[in-house]
Design a protein that fits this description.
The chain contains seven helices and no strands. By secondary structure, it is mostly helical. It has two domains: 67 residues; 66 residues. It comes from Azotobacter bryophylli.
């Protein structure tokens, strides 16, 4: 599964900086700091504070990832869902969201079926089921919100 739930803030910082186009050196340049400083902030060494939420967000805006909001939401037992912008919605977009949500639900069902083949759901299988389910819930929420936004009465 491409979605990765990270367990610590440090894991988030590592994933964001490693996945930055051009690597950690480019990430440091984007933030206007030296690569050594970035490494110290990611690993909280040499007396450096970790990257701020704003710095992580700046990198993720370029990456197209959302590790930080996924991490924070998971701390509270939730799922991050990006709210669609009303201006970009039409029936084709809505249909696309419906298909994506249905596909993600199918993935959940496939993982459950595979896990139940031996009659027992192991811990790693349960985690895979949860991750796929969170992805489905996020897609479904986007679909529902898009439907409401697209078909709401205009003032």
């Amino acid at each position: 599964m491409s979605k990765q739930l990270l367990e610590t803030r440090r894991d988030v910082m590592k994933a964001v900086t490693r996945g930055f186009p051009g690597g950690q050196e480019a990430a440091a340049a984007h933030l206007g700091i030296r690569p050594k400083r970035l490494g110290n902030q990611v690993y909280e060494t040499a007396g450096c504070s970790p990257l701020s939420d704003a710095q992580i967000h700046a990198l993720e805006s370029v990456n197209g990832t959302r590790f930080l909001p996924d991490y924070v939401c998971a701390l509270y037992g939730g799922v991050f869902v990006k709210v669609p912008e009303v201006g970009e919605l039409d029936n084709v977009d809505l249909y696309s969201r419906v298909v994506r949500a249905a596909a993600k639900r199918g993935i959940v069902d496939q993982i459950i079926a595979a896990a139940l083949e031996d009659g027992v759901i192991e811990a790693c299988e349960a985690e895979a089921i949860r991750e796929a389910h969170y992805a489905y819930l996020a897609a479904r929420h986007e679909e529902v919100q898009a439907t409401i936004d697209l078909h709401s009465a205009q003032p």
